[in-house]
Write a structure and sequence with these properties.
Layout lengths: L11 H8 L4 H34 L13 H51 L2 H6 L2 H43 L1 H8 L1 H39 L1 H6 L3 H27 L1 H25 L5 H15 L5 H23 L18 E9 L5 E10 L4 E6 L5 H8 L7 E6 L2 E2 L5 H6 L1 E5 L9 H5 L8 H10 L3 H5 L18 H15 L3 E5 L7 H14 L4 E5 L11 E6 L2 E6 L1 H7 L2 H10 L4
Parallel strand pairs: 3-8, 3-9, 6-7, 7-8
Antiparallel strand pairs: 1-2, 1-4, 4-5, 9-10
Helix pairs in contact: 1-12, 2-3, 2-5, 2-11, 3-5, 3-12, 5-6, 5-7, 5-11, 5-12, 6-10, 7-9, 7-10, 7-12, 10-11, 16-18, 18-19, 20-21
Length: 593
């Protein structure tokens, strides 16, 4: 079984809402402040209408009906209410801005961590099918798109909705004979917005895919900059990047062409409602069937109701970008973790390994390992050799459960490793790979990677055993020297010795050496061999090697061909068999058979 993305089970907004349940109280606080801010924002036109009412009707105004007949006193009351309204509007505007922005940052932070944490738990098959650039685009750009929507778009939707509800109810209460004229554009605008959203969704989905491809191209080229320079393919790569960037630009252009047309169309619909209220309401005010103050409120409120709807285009644009990104992030989170988590802690590991009839195949390929059985006693040093593609490195990945076997069992100290806690299992193993990966940081940080509680003294002792101390002391800042991304400031042999020091400091009961000396010179190989002779004592060691001279002293050597063990024995015994191993030995040493 393999990890692969699931098809979306529901729309992105529903998936986001399910994810956001833990932020429910913060969302309610922010939403309440947005609504209250809009309520107070809508109050000034009402106060203006009341002021007009005082000026026109004087002692017969609405306020006068509450017992305040003096005109100046009525205006003072309105002035006081205005100060309160503006004050509350400002307070709630500050509050919603703080709440929405902090909520956006919190969700963005948590979502990125959750997505990355889930990504780390997926098996290697997932990473073989997805580019690094694509995953970076999800973790960075897609998560940021969601933050932009929460920062601005969510508040806009709430405030427009509040405006429509309050003004619609107010119009129906104070002037039902005119309210319908103002209301006519609203269902048209809402219907148009929904239809517009459906048209935009696939276009922004395409935009997110194109930016993913562009990100993949950039990440790939930056990783391979040495190859680009050595083959002088700079111009070729610029053209390839130009193609990807142009595809992204064109997909954005198609989305922009549609989104830009929304606001002008909405304005035309709004114009009908506004002019109808202006003309018919004005005539009713003239003939006395509508109070002048009420007419003033209607005119102001019609504008406050309809013009904000023009911002729906920008809000929908943010929404669709965010939903396209949300779909990609949530699909990543929905990707199943195929590795059985295991709940058994291994405790003190002796290092006895049993592989019984194990079978493994990469997706859509023939089995790489076929009914392989192997027994490694605790403290024993064994070596595995064979031609390229025979399955040696795959075997290492199966021991670490980077992939899951499809048949057979692997036990460690009698415990099926599928039942073991992954952290516990991998903590018991130290891997020194041919392809050494060093992180951008200091020499000391890289040696202590995986052993964060180790002391400087312990790190230096490990470096001395790995024969790395001497060259480290010659570096500009010794153990504090920055090694560069992937350790590019160091030679291959230096990187390999740091990797060995890292494994020594971890002090695992099982040491796995995967072609640890295949890409170093003879002097470095000799230094590494001296280190290995020391660190393999009293621990189970599995050495995979092309150079047979490095493993001739192993307790047992296994020869693999096409996923099977075809020969086994000590160096001398295998030479005496005069089989595959003996032939490999003759080729490497130049001895003629």
């Amino acid at each position: 079984m393999r990890s692969r993305p699931l098809s979306p089970s529901s729309n992105p907004l529903q998936r986001l809402m399910r994810y956001g349940r833990k932020y429910r109280s913060k969302i309610w606080q922010a939403a309440t402040c947005s609504v209250l801010n809009k309520i107070f924002d809508l109050a000034p036109p009402v106060l203006i209408g009341a002021a007009v009412d005082v000026v026109v009707k004087q002692q017969d105004s609405l306020i006068a009906q509450f017992g305040v007949t003096d005109i100046f006193s009525q205006l003072v009351i309105l002035a006081g209410l205005t100060v309160l309204v503006w004050g509350f509007e400002s307070v709630f505007e500050y509050a919603y801005a703080q709440l929405w922005r902090n909520l956006a940052q919190k969700i963005q932070h948590d979502l990125r961590l959750d997505a990355y944490s889930h990504l780390q738990d997926l098996d290697l098959a997932f990473f073989e099918e997805r580019s690094t650039g694509d995953l970076l685009a999800i973790l960075n750009d897609d998560v940021n798109q969601l933050e932009r929507f929460l920062d601005v778009g969510a508040n806009e939707i709430l405030q427009v909705s509040t405006t429509v509800v309050i003004i619609s109810l107010g119009f129906m209460a104070i002037a039902p004979s005119i309210a319908w004229m103002t209301m006519i554009p609203i269902p048209i605008i809402i219907w148009g917005s929904v239809a517009f959203q459906k048209l935009l969704a696939p276009r922004y989905g395409e935009v997110r895919e194109k930016v993913s491809l562009l990100s993949s191209r950039l990440a790939n080229n930056l990783s391979g900059i040495m190859t680009i320079k050595s083959f002088t393919t700079e111009a070729f790569e610029i053209e390839r990047l130009r193609t990807e960037s142009e595809a992204y630009r064109q997909s954005n252009r198609r989305a922009i062409a549609l989104s830009a047309g929304f606001i002008p169309l909405i304005r035309l619909v709004i114009l009908f409602g506004f002019t109808a209220t202006l003309l018919i309401g004005g005539m009713k005010a003239v003939d006395g069937s509508l109070a002048v103050g009420t007419y003033s409120v209607l005119v102001f409120m019609t504008q406050r109701l309809l013009w904000p709807l023009t911002r729906l285009g920008q809000t929908l644009d943010l929404y669709q970008r965010a939903m396209a990104s949300t779909n990609r992030v949530m699909t990543l989170l929905d990707t199943p973790i195929d590795a059985h988590p295991g709940g058994l802690s291994l405790g003190d590991v002796r290092g006895e390994l049993r592989l019984e009839n194990i079978t493994f195949a990469y997706r859509d390929r023939e089995p790489v390992i076929k009914n392989l059985s192997l027994q490694i006693e605790a403290g024993q040093t064994i070596a595995i050799v064979g031609s390229t593609g025979s399955g040696k490195s795959t075997l290492v990945k199966l021991l670490l459960r980077l992939y899951e076997i499809q048949g057979g069992t692997i036990t460690l100290d009698g415990v099926d490793i599928r039942e073991a806690n992954l952290s516990s299992l991998r903590s018991a193993m130290g891997l020194v790979s041919q392809d050494v990966f060093l992180f951008h940081g200091s020499v000391l940080e890289n040696i202590k990677y995986g052993s964060p509680d180790a002391t400087l003294t312990g790190a230096i002792a490990a470096a001395k055993i790995a024969e790395a101390h001497n060259f480290i002391e010659k570096l500009p800042q010794t153990y504090e020297t920055i090694v560069g991304e992937r350790g590019q400031k160091l030679s291959g042999g230096q990187r390999q010795r740091l990797a060995i020091a890292r494994a020594i400091l971890k002090d695992p009961p099982i040491l796995i050496l995967d072609e640890a000396t295949s890409s170093v010179d003879n002097e470095t190989e000799a230094a590494i061999a001296r280190s290995l002779e020391y660190i393999t004592q009293n621990r189970t060691t599995i050495a995979i090697a092309h150079r047979l001279s490095t493993i001739r002293n192993a307790d047992c050597i296994y020869v693999m061909e096409y996923g099977r063990i075809v020969e086994r024995g000590t160096h001398e015994a295998l030479l005496a068999q005069n089989g595959i191993y003996a032939n490999l030995w003759r080729v490497q040493t130049g001895i003629k058979g």
